[in-house]
Design goal:
Helices cover 31% and strands 29% of the residues. The chain is of the alpha/beta class and 656 residues long. α4 packs parallel to α5 and α8 runs parallel beside α9. The site of FE3-S4 cluster (F3S) has 14 residues, from α1, α4 and α8.
Amino acid sequence: MKIEIADKAGFCFGVKRAIDLAIGLAENASEKFGEVLTLGELIHNERAVKALEEKGVFAVNSVEEAAGKPLVIRSHGVPKATLKAARESSPEVIDATCPFVKEIHKIAESVPESGSLIVLGDKNHPEVIGIVGNAKCTAFTAMTFDEVCEVLDTDPPKPVAMVVQTTFDSSVFSEIFQKVKEKYGCVEIHNTICTATVKRQESARELAKRAALMIVVGGRSSSNTRKLAEICERHTKTVFVTSAEEIPQRILEDLQADNSKAVIGITAGASTPADTIKEVHDKMNEEITKINENEEDFASLLEQDQSFNRLYNGKRVKATVVSVSKKEVVVEVGAKQTGYIVREELTNDPSADIEDIVKVGDVIDAVVIKVDDSVGTAALSKKRVDAQLGLEKLEEVKDSGEAVEGKVTQVVKGGVIVIFENTRVFIPASHTGIPRGGKLEELQGKTVKFEIIEVSNERGGRVVGSIRQASRKVRDAERAKFWESIEVGQKFEGEVRSIENYGVFVDIGAVDGLVHTADLTWNRVGHPKDIVKVGDKITVIVKSFDPEKKRVSLSAKDPEDNPWTKFVAEYAKDDVIKATIVSITEFGAFAQIIPGVDGLIHISQISTERVADINTVLKVGDTVDVKIIDIDNEKSRVSLSIRALSEDAPAEDATD
Ligand code: F3S
């Protein structure tokens, strides 16, 4: 024979959370106020209530009774007006309404005043009263499909929403849901039944089917415990006890007489503390030991029964996420205690969204930081495990010299903090890559690559990193790759970095290359600044490069627009054309034939007469008739002549 405790037996998450919050408040506030009050009992269990009283937590029935004292709102929640009144009369109010119930309040509140809300549930149950009291619209309660019809037939739907009490019978709800959907398609139905209740009932049913005896542990006034007993009775012999002392002797005797079935099951209501379940477990274990005349010791039984795996501060556990809210994550740790991880213990990143870090079903590594056996909760930390793992990993990273990525979460004195796998890494200002006097705030929220330059285990671990070092390595690697792959004719989209008299420097990624003034455009250029400005994006082509001297010569001229190609296609030697004087030198004048192609009229080719000073004959802007006397394709040069035109002219008729 062996004992099995049903999964999910005992405190649900919402109740545990409320108890924990109340105890936390009592630890902080009872010295000043003497006691902490709860609006109604947090839990329907005498022993648990007593344990709470010993910790300074007492129940009252109205907000007025709590005036002047810290007050906790229990997991059932309260009407909006009650919460407001409590906040006005109590110095501190902790709203421990179960997050699942809060979700229903939000739905209730979202129905516009012109609409209606139907709450499926017991109208006298505090949770239902709280839901109704959070609606702006008219709210009705119903327990059956007929009652729902009464509401919908007499109050024709405007917008109508329907929610369900968290502990409502799920099979009854399914039936009502189907019928309402068929008959009143416009009703917005929200299934707000709490899965904790459903799962507890399912696991009790499953165990009862296999067990010779089911022991249901819980308070007599607890409706969910009674419901569990009803479920178990349908499948096997069941006893309902509030404590181990109540286990009837005759049941034990019956077991002695017939031990053909091997399993004795235990389940417990949502308000049954873990130690009460444990006592029942212990008592049954004693009896079984007697029956079997077996010396199997209790410790080994406990060992086999994962339900009672002991948690203690500092224990590393694998935890399964069962719910995620904005403030905390609830986890299962294979023990009777429900684990929870508050936001601050989940991550070191204050801007992170919990829902982005974990999701329901994830199995995470965590460490126990506080166990409270009296209420069956265990506070855990994920970030402390992560930090330790992160520290170990960062030590390896430091040794390997590789760069890792993290998010800058904080600007602190002398640098910034980057979070890497929940480990804080300090980057001194001089290693951020931000120039001296620059704003470190520019890095806030950014994901950066950095190297680890120091890891020490002092004061819980100190890690120092360098973004600058990692960037330099990345740059060096990019440069090496650049010099390996560069080719003449390669095209780059670059950015003008600086402008000099002789040209411009263009950033083409790994290096800056030089575009000489003459290579900026096919046209004549006075000064580079007439063509580009710093920051301009331009397309450049590699003309030549020197990997030794790390120099790249670039051209911004597009070969397809080369005016020389156009010139040779359209003009030939001996053509007589018109050209415009664009500059005058000592040895001749340059005349533009087409944009980008100028020809030289040598001083000797200007006139049949000797020309001493060109400026007396030609000036910039003059349009002159010239003859093309030479085309040098290799050097892309054209020679022009005015004189040749006079020589070509027929001799003047002397008789004219
Ligand atoms: Fe909350 Fe579900 Fe318990 S709604 S209070 S976790 S039964």
